[in-house]
């Protein structure tokens, strides 16, 4: 019995991290198999999630060429930098849709157009374009065809679904190779018995996405109130990243210039006050290492140390926002 062809567009994975690995490693394996005499080239950015950056670093050790693009002070990848970095052997461009730490929304459609133009000029299927849309699915249009992406990674837990399940969109006709082999589930791309309860939970979360998108304006108003009050009432405080092109639920606040004895203990003080706040990526909240994202946008070590990430959700209230501002003022004035 032969395995079915790769016609399905959504492949389920255990985690978004696995989805990202499947997209990147799978695309490179397919490229290497198709063009044996050319070393594949990947383009990504300095503010990607570690799942992307570590995967690219691993592949670099295996002989893959990797270009990591810089970002500006707001965390944006310049479109001209993507165009300039493209080479004859570029097999994959991987740029995240929205950043998990500073909320910056990248010009994915425009980058997708650039990749498509180059592919048309070459008359082939490469380079492929992958985006990590884990943070974007709740609030932004993630229609892969409209975005012009070939591969799109997403997570269940970021859309109020269960933890431990994610997925990968693959455009029909774009070949990637499996990184987990076995019985050939998920059309041969991801072997292993599927966890049906988690998949059902993911499907329900996706079905409810339209309700979440309706709340985006309300969440954005709360976020703007937080930013406005902090900057107005705490001298020296500022916002990390762009205000205009930003996820509605994200505020990354910088207290590096605030005169206070509090530094890295700000997170602890806020926790004791009843607020669950992080210093950077939630995935690395216990890693105790400086944020590579904040470093990439040019912040000093002191600013990185005294920055916090506030994530709002559908249950966040005005009272909680005002309470957080008052707690920050009290802690920083101590």
Automatic annotation (TrEMBL):
<dbReference type="GO" id="GO:0051536">
    <property type="term" value="F:iron-sulfur cluster binding"/>
</dbReference>
<dbReference type="GO" id="GO:0046872">
    <property type="term" value="F:metal ion binding"/>
</dbReference>
<keyword id="KW-0411">Iron-sulfur</keyword>
<dbReference type="InterPro" id="IPR020578">
    <property type="entry name" value="Aminotrans_V_PyrdxlP_BS"/>
</dbReference>
<dbReference type="InterPro" id="IPR000192">
    <property type="entry name" value="Aminotrans_V_dom"/>
</dbReference>
<keyword id="KW-0663">Pyridoxal phosphate</keyword>
<keyword id="KW-0808">Transferase</keyword>
<protein>
    <recommendedName>
        <fullName>cysteine desulfurase</fullName>
        <ecNumber>2.8.1.7</ecNumber>
    </recommendedName>
</protein>
<dbReference type="Pfam" id="PF00266">
    <property type="entry name" value="Aminotran_5"/>
</dbReference>
<comment type="similarity">
    <text>Belongs to the class-V pyridoxal-phosphate-dependent aminotransferase family. NifS/IscS subfamily.</text>
</comment>
<dbReference type="GO" id="GO:0031071">
    <property type="term" value="F:cysteine desulfurase activity"/>
</dbReference>
<dbReference type="InterPro" id="IPR015421">
    <property type="entry name" value="PyrdxlP-dep_Trfase_major"/>
</dbReference>
<keyword id="KW-0479">Metal-binding</keyword>
<dbReference type="InterPro" id="IPR015422">
    <property type="entry name" value="PyrdxlP-dep_Trfase_small"/>
</dbReference>
<dbReference type="InterPro" id="IPR015424">
    <property type="entry name" value="PyrdxlP-dep_Trfase"/>
</dbReference>
<dbReference type="InterPro" id="IPR016454">
    <property type="entry name" value="Cysteine_dSase"/>
</dbReference>
<feature type="domain" description="Aminotransferase class V">
    <location>
        <begin position="16"/>
        <end position="324"/>
    </location>
</feature>
<keyword id="KW-0408">Iron</keyword>
């Amino acid at each position: 019995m032969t395995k079915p062809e790769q016609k399905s567009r959504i492949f389920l994975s255990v985690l978004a991290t696995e989805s990202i690995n499947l997209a990147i490693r799978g695309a490179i394996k397919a490229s290497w198999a198709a063009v044996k005499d050319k070393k594949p080239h990947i383009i990504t950015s300095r503010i990607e999630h570690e799942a992307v950056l570590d995967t690219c670093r691993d592949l670099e050790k295996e002989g893959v060429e990797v270009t990591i693009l810089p970002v500006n002070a707001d965390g944006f990848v310049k479109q001209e930098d993507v165009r300039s970095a493209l080479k004859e052997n570029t097999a994959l461009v991987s740029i995240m849709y929205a950043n998990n730490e500073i909320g910056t929304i990248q010009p994915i459609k425009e980058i997708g157009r650039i990749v498509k133009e180059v592919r048309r000029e070459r008359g082939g299927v490469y380079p492929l374009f992958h985006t990590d849309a884990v943070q974007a699915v709740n609030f932004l249009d993630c229609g892969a065809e409209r975005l012009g992406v070939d591969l799109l990674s997403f997570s269940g837990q970021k859309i109020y679904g269960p933890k431990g399940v994610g997925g990968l969109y693959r455009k029909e006709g774009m070949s990637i190779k499996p990184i987990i082999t076995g019985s050939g589930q998920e059309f041969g791309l991801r072997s292993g018995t599927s966890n049906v309860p988690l998949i059902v939970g993911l499907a329900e979360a996706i079905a409810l996405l339209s309700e979440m998108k309706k709340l985006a304006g309300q969440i954005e108003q709360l976020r703007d109130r937080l930013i406005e009050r902090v900057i107005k009432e705490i001298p020296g405080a500022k916002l990390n990243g762009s205000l205009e092109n930003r996820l509605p639920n994200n505020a990354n606040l910088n207290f590096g210039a605030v005169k206070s004895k509090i530094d890295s203990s700000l997170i602890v003080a806020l926790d004791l006050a009843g607020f669950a706040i992080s210093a950077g990526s939630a995935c690395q909240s216990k890693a105790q290492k400086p944020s590579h994202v904040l470093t990439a946008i040019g912040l000093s070590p002191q600013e990185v140390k005294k920055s916090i990430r506030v994530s709002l959700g559908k249950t966040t209230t005005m009272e909680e926002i005002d309470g957080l501002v008052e707690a920050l003022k009290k802690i920083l004035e101590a």
